[in-house]
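Figure 2 data, in text form.
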Amino acid sequence: MRRAAESQDTMFRAIYATLSISVILMLVTSSVSGQRSNKRPKIEILREIDLEEGRQRLIDFRRMWVVGDISLRYSLQYIPRRGKRKEIEGTLWGTNGLGGPVSLIKLHGDSESQLYLQSGPFASVSKKQNAEARWAMVDVLDWFKTVDDQITLTAFDLMMPFIYWKDWSYEGVTKVNSRVAHAFLLTAPESFQNNSLGLHAVVVFLDESFNALLKAEYVTADDLVIKSLRLIDIKKVDDVWLPKTFDFLDEESRDKTRLRIREAAVHLDFSDHPFGRGVIPESVPEIPLSRYKELK
C-alpha cells in the first residue's frame, strides 16, 4: 500500500512538473512573440450542412425584434485582467424603424452622452456629447471608438451591424458550450476597410432553439480572433425574452466589459414621441419608474 501510494504520488508530481514546464514554455513563447495566439478554432460540425436551413435561420434572425417599444436600465462594468474595476450605468429606449431596430442610449457618466443607433442594412450612428450639445453623425470608422473612457465598449458592439452584412456564408451546426448553434461567417463591407480594430469578418453563433445570438467572434483577415461577445443568460419579462447579461472580451488584453440589464419596461408606446416617429429626439421618452421590472 505504501509503495502504491508512493508510486501514485510520484506520478502526480511528474504530471505537475510536466504541466509546469509546459506553462513556462508557453509564457516564454508568448513573451518572445509579444502576443497571444488567437487563431480562430476550427468549427466542429455536428451534422451535414443544409444551406437552405442556414439561409432561412439568418433571415428569421434579422427580422427578430421585441414586439412593441421597450426601455432597459443597465450597467456597464469594465473588468480588466489587472487593475481596478469600473462601472457606469445607462438607459436604452428601443423601437422599430422602417430600416430596422433603432436604439436611443444614454450613458449616466460624467458627460451624460447619448447615442442614436439605427441598425439594419443602412446602419448609422449619431452622438450627442452632453445635454447642451447638438447631435452629430459618427463616421463608420469611428464606430470602433469606446463610448466612454471608463469602458471598452464601442458603438459597433452595441449596434451589432454585422448581423445585416450582405456577404455571408453558412458554416454549419456546432455547439457553443452545451447549446446546439448555427454558425455564420459575415464579411465586412468595403466601408469598414482600414478600421482601427483590423476587423475583417464576424463569426456568429445562433441558438438552434431560440435562434438568439449566443456568441460572436471578431476576426482579422488572418483569421485571428481579436474580440468576442458572449450571451451569459436571458430573462423573461411579461412574456418577452430579453438578454440579461453580455460579456465583451478583448482577446488580446483579456480585458472585459460586462453589460447587465437591471430593469426592463416592455410593451411601451413611443408613437407620440419624436423617437417613435423615426426622428432623432432632443429629449428622451419619459417612462414612469413603476413600469420597470427588475431582472433577478
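Caption note: The CA atoms of residues 64 and 212 lie 9 Å apart.
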